[in-house]
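assembly run, all chains below
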Amino acid sequence: MNSNGKHLHFFAIFNDAVSTLWSIIVPLGFGFFWGVRHLDDLFGYVIIIPVIILVFNFFKWLRFKYEFVDDQFHIRSGVLVRNDRYIRIQRIQSVQIKTNLLLRLLGVVQLKFDTADPAFKGDIVLSALKREEAEHIKAQVSRGKTQQVQFLSEEALAETPIVDESPKKVYALSGKRLLAASLLSSKIGVMLAAVFGLWSQADDLVPKSIRGRSLSYIEHASLVGIIVLIGFAILLLWLFSLVTALFRWGGFKFSIYDGEWRIHRGIVETSDETYKKDRVQAIRIKEQWLLQLFGWCTVYADCSGSIDLEKSDGGSVLVFPLLRKKELPTFLEHAIPRFSGPITFNHLPVRGSVYRMILPVVFWTSFVSILAWRLSWGKYAFIALPVIFIFFWFSYRSEGYSLQNNRLIFINRFFAKTTTITRKNHIQSFAKKNSRLQRRLNLASCSVTIRAASGKTFTVRQLEEQDARAIFQWFRTK
Amino acid sequence: MTHIICWLIIGGCAASILFLHWPHFLFYIVAVLATLNVLQLILFAVVFPKISYRTFFYAIRKEDLLIQDGIIIIKQTVIPFTRVQNVETEQGPLLRKHHLTAVSVTTAAGVHEIPALEETEAIALRDQISELIKENPANEL
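ok done. output:
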């Protein structure tokens, strides 16, 4: 399966240029606004920069070539530092095809290979391809892989694996759920931060004549007026984040195939991702407060190998945004049988929670005391103290762990309750920790490290010493 | 290294208070910082090494490597040989002078280090671990 060296679609030049420009302009933009007012010459430089980037990207495109060589995929790249990268097709974990609005107008897609390489080595991305070409590559990669498997197990050739191309089960995010998911998990904090950032720059952006008027209006407005204004702004922000969440999760479809998952999502910017089931190292079930109140949960998976860090949530794959808690066992049963099973948990000892309370109690009491000492309204902060303590107490009490055959379940809570399910054969290393005081109280903390996009550690604190030892033994014996 | 930087900052502040007429209350802050720094120096140079020397041990067992370390919080780590990807030995000039070697074990999720062993012991350990890795090849994924 050889092929000649091929260029990317011509549009790749502009696509890369735009993304480079974007990453430069956004941080420097405000600086330029500030600078331009003082130095008119700077305008010239501002115009030159995109041209330089465009020329550079042209050479990059000229140099970038990909081809199939025997059972390897060969990529040549790099303008100044030349780079040849050979990837064994066998080692390509999955192929992902993505588009965004700009690409879609031209009928062009992005193709990305997942390999077992650690994340820092960089992803293998073909940034612009015709759709047919991308499908062709995808087909060729999957054909190469099955050929290899057959080659490896020739005696098993009698029963040729029937490639079943229809999904075993499809979970789609219905309209109602999409709305609920967007409503419950819109990221208002990020939005607020963005607006405050803009507001601080507003002086520079808004012309003086308008600014005088708008600001004087705010100065003269009554307190109620300002509150209404802020409330309105928050509502607007929330609506905006709702819409972005709708676009991001619209058309979410999770299909289960024989050995892999396919996740499709997005309305304007669609992405099709494929994940091998055997790459999954742990399943995380996250229940935000609001979600928990209504009996919903979100399912994540931690996979080994390279993961698109931008698109996923902290290196984990979003498996399904919103699922009823009682649907979860059947969902796991279908999606990934080896992680499924009853999710029970053992409570942690009460004295462990008391021990853990020491830190927040000391911290918040001293913090509030300082407030009361320095500020006139500080003494009212003492009212918040019991609330904080109750919050910590209950969040500590809801943690737990459980051990079932080869499955280890940790339940943690900070704000959201997170249930982590992993298996013995996915745990890379195991650590048991305790301080002198903990030993006196017969308590210990356990943490397991698994191999995700970057090593990920899950910890459960203040177990009974003998339980910790039991997990220790469980991990040691095969 | 951070220690030296700390002293530089403290010295700089003290000098500016004396010569540049900075507000005088800063002096107390500088004094507190200096005390803390001295305390840290004593702890890390005299007290902690003794304790960590006493708590540290490693053991090679049938299927895994056990490392215990820590000063206040004692931590025991188990690394099964099936998960080990490679073993490294490292020797800086100071360690070389005293015929010591550091051994580190890499898994897919991180590096675990045994900071200083006798040279011969370190090499024996490295060979032993690499032999054990060979027997059960890490499951590749």
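Residues 12-38 of chain A form the longest helix (27 residues).

Chain A touches chain B at residues 116, 278-279, 304-305, 425, 427-436, 438-439, 449-452, 455-457, 472, 475-476, 478 (CB under 8 Å).

not gonna interpret more than that til we talk
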